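dude i think i finally got it to work??
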Amino acid sequence: MTVEAVLRQRATRIRPSGRILAGRVLFLVAAPVLPALLACTVGWLAAWLTVREYPSEVGARRVVEAGRAGAVTWVAGRGRG
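look at this
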């Protein structure tokens, strides 16, 4: 074998191991965050499946309906009145 063939063969062996090492490092960095990300995803999915309307949506709908009826008596930041 020539020197170039040996170097080419060696380079092809090194590249995959470098990619594997990069994947392991990425996993080790991301591992502490994964449980929190999974918990957030599960919580969001549970809320999406079980909650009909968020409280902010209910409040916004009431303000819009009251505004249509001309009975807006309170706006955030202006106080009651």
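Strands lie at 74-75, 79-80.
im so relieved honestly
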